[in-house]
Amino acid sequence: MAFEDVLIPVIIALITGFFLGWYFVKAQISAIEQRYRADLERWKIESAAEIRKDSVNRSRSTLKGKIGEQMAPLLPSFGYLPADARFIGSPVDYIIFDGLSAVADEKGSSIRIVFMDVKHGSATLSRTQRVIKKAVEERTITWQTLHIEDY
Q1: Pairwise CA distance, residues 64 & 113, whole Å
Q2: Which strands, in side-by-side order, build the sheet including 112-116?
Q3: CB neighbours of 31 closer than 8 A, spacing ≥ 6?
Q4: What is the pLDDT of residues 36-95, one digit of tens each?
Q5: % the chain with pLDDT above 70
Q6: Can you give the pTM of this predicted structure?
Q7: DSSP states of the chain as a string?
Q8: Which of 120, 66, 108, 65 is nearest to 83 (CA)?
Q9: What does the alpha-carbon distance between residue 139 and residue 126 come to, in Å, rounded to a whole number?
Q10: Is residue 92 part of a domain?
Q11: For the residues 103-115, what does the mean pLDDT come to?
């Protein structure tokens, strides 16, 4: 038996084995992908309710905060006359002209201006609010009147 006579069947057997192995691995990968896709879909279904609940709770918390900001002048802890407070919402919630009602009623002659932000729970000032607070504390506040000409 010549070497060439043995070589061709061995090459054919190797090529056939390679392709059979390749199809086997491909089938295994496909089965694993299908299993993980099924697991992912099951997780999506199971987690959807929890994700919705978390979203609703976050929305509810935000809404409570916004209501609290608007209702703050009516709370006993507010400390100022509600008529003296002006809600602006952003970047701070209120500018309070403490004593303005007395000045308007001609019972007072001075006011104190207070910048106030209402926070709920463990909320903290934003970076912008901290910069504003620093400006107020450092008294970098000015008055400016703008006169508009008729055109």
Answers
A1: 27
A2: 85-87, 94-98, 112-116
A3: none
A4: 999 999 999 889 988 888 899 888 888 888 888 889 999 999 999 999 999 998 999 999
A5: 99
A6: 0.61
A7: --HHHHHHHHHHHHHHHHHHHHHHHHHHHHHHHHHHHHHHHHHHHHHHHHHHHHHHHHHHHHHHHHHHHHHGGGSGGG-S-GGGEEE--SSSSEEEEETHHHHHTTS-S--EEEEE----TT----HHHHHHHHHHHTT-------PPPP-
A8: 108
A9: 20
A10: yes
A11: 93
Residue 132 placed within a domain: yes
In terms of pLDDT, which residue wins out, 19 or 61? Answer: 19
Q: Based on C-alpha coordinates, what's the Rg of the chain? A: 36
Please state the separation of Cα 17 from the chain's center in Å.
56
Domain count, the chain: 1
The separation between CA 29 and the C-alpha centre of its own chain, rounded to angstroms, equals 39
* Cα distances (angstroms) measured from residue 137 to each of 116, 132, 134, 140, 141: 13, 9, 5, 8, 10
Asked if residue 65 is part of any domain, the answer here is no
> What pLDDT sits at residue 100?
95
pLDDT band at 137 (very low <50, low <70, confident <90, very high): very high
Q: Tell me, what amino acid is at 94? A: Y
Q: For residue 37, tell me if it sits in a domain.
A: no
